[in-house]
Specification:
The structure holds 2 protein chains of 2 kinds. Chain A is mainly beta. Chain A is built from no helices and 11 strands. The model of chain A has no long low-confidence stretch (mean pLDDT about 95). Classes of the chains: A mainly beta, B mainly beta.
Chain lengths: ~110, ~120
């Protein structure tokens, strides 16, 4: 089944403790992206990657890092999480161009 | 500056009637517009798209209309069904170089279809 898989689905952590949210897609998509969804703010892009070893900042990149060492994986790294990063995170992938995006099921992160 | 705007946070419609979800945009460089539907605890799923050179695209009960002069698009759902109750996100695709496009979303509109 074609899908985008994010792990974990739920995570509670403490301020300052480094964490990684994994994202993997099995559709051979070149384009991958991370979004966060917050009440009243909709979906905002954090980082995106157009291909292996090519990443770029989205609208809200502060406090996040990403890497794209392989085509299928695009992990989101929070080196020192803070409470304002408590949010619902979505990974998405696409062939690029004007194709629709496939989203993962989301990761609900709480930073206390 | 928000380039894609959904000014109605919520909308309630009776089952069987038409639902109209609106979206405005400020960037005339958008090449495509997409609508996504999102249920609670799930990721958004692609619903329908429209090219900026078209003014209408239809797919079953879903039709998207684009008015470029007004920088406005709308999603019509006819007839509305209770299963359509979800948050709908409008997104604009803009070319970002090297054959890739960037997708920018509005804040979403929560549609409730009342049986």
């Amino acid at each position: 089944e074609a899908q985008v898989t994010q792990n974990p689905r739920y995570l509670i952590t403490v301020t300052g403790k480094k964490l990684t949210v994994t994202c993997s897609q099995n559709m051979n998509h070149e384009y991958m992206s991370w979004y966060r969804q917050d009440p009243g703010l909709g979906l905002r892009q954090i980082y995106y990657s157009m291909n292996v070893e090519v990443t770029d900042k989205g609208d809200v990149p502060e406090g996040y890092k990403v890497s794209r060492k392989e085509k299928r994986n695009f992990p989101l790294i929070l080196e020192s999480p803070s409470p304002n990063q408590t949010s619902l995170y979505f990974c998405a992938s696409s062939f690029g161009g004007t194709y629709g995006y496939t989203f993962g099921s989301g990761t609900r992160l709480t930073v206390v | 500056d928000q380039q894609v705007k959904q000014n109605s946070p919520s909308l309630s419609v009776q089952e069987g009637r038409i639902s109209i979800l609106n979206c405005d945009y400020t960037n005339s460089m958008f090449d495509y517009f997409l609508w996504y539907k999102k249920y609670p605890a799930e990721g958004p799923t692609f619903l329908i798209s429209i090219s900026s050179i078209k003014d209408k695209n239809e797919d079953g009960r879903f039709t998207v209309f684009l008015n470029k002069s007004a920088k406005h698009l709308s999603l019509h759902i006819v007839p509305s069904q209770p299963g359509d109750s979800a948050v709908y996100f409008c997104g604009g695709l803009i070319y970002s170089g090297a054959g890739s496009y960037q997708l920018t979303f509005g804040k979403g509109t929560k549609l409730s279809v009342i049986p």
